[in-house]
């Protein structure tokens, strides 16, 4: 595919190079001269929300070829003296292209999304005003603090809510856990991956994981793990993949995909 064929670029990131967004810079750098481009901020759920957003643009007939990117550079937001967080995260990027097709060829079978802002403080990079106001204007200027994570609460949230989201998505598609060939979760930590699989009675052999290599790469973790699974020929044509992201917001969601082998036109 030539970059000029891309209609839309969605960059899922919480760490842009420019606070106003980095998608337009990517559009320029790859020569996607016909593409609209914007950032989407949903932290570790970003790639899932990006895929769902892209699929709805395609379904409406607005765009035909959409580049969805998940990328984060959390190394610039962690406190390197805090080993409770700094050793957990990695920097990475991954991407996928969604293309329009007939209903019978559609590979995104269903999705289910959620947000609960009551618990946003458990995982955040909060903004903090300076103590002293501007010298002559009645306002405070400040800066963002380091990444903060309440690991215990995030774990409780993930292992309770992610399985429910997956089950809701399966049930509304008239599918069951037995239909799942692969479980691809946001690569937060191994305990969460195993606990979610156990709650769903899914064999650990069906978990796609590469956490030990890269750590938690936020919005990049799902496309990164998916690409490695494809490179290793784990995923076969027509396999059912349940993809679930979860993270800051708190946000979480599930996509059910029937994998189709294809070549880009």
UniProtKB/TrEMBL annotation:
Top-level taxon of origin: Eukaryota
- Residue ranges that the Swiss-Prot or TrEMBL entry lists as coiled coil: none
Q: Which GO terms describe its molecular function?
A: 3-oxoacyl-[acyl-carrier-protein] synthase activity
| Alphabetized InterPro entries for the sequence | ACP_syn_III_C, ACP_syn_III_N, Thiolase-like
Keyword terms: Chloroplast, Fatty acid biosynthesis, Fatty acid metabolism, Lipid biosynthesis, Lipid metabolism, Plastid, Transferase
Q: Give every Beta-ketoacyl-[acyl-carrier-protein] synthase III C-terminal domain span.
A: 170-259
Output the Pfam families linked to this UniProt entry.
Answer: ACP_syn_III (PF08545), ACP_syn_III_C (PF08541)
Q: In which pathway does it act?
A: Lipid metabolism
- Supply the SUPFAM superfamilies for this chain: Thiolase-like (SSF53901)
Q: Which family does it belong to?
A: Belongs to the thiolase-like superfamily. FabH family.
Q: What is this protein called?
A: Beta-ketoacyl-[acyl-carrier-protein] synthase III
Species in which this protein is naturally found: Laurencia sp. A25
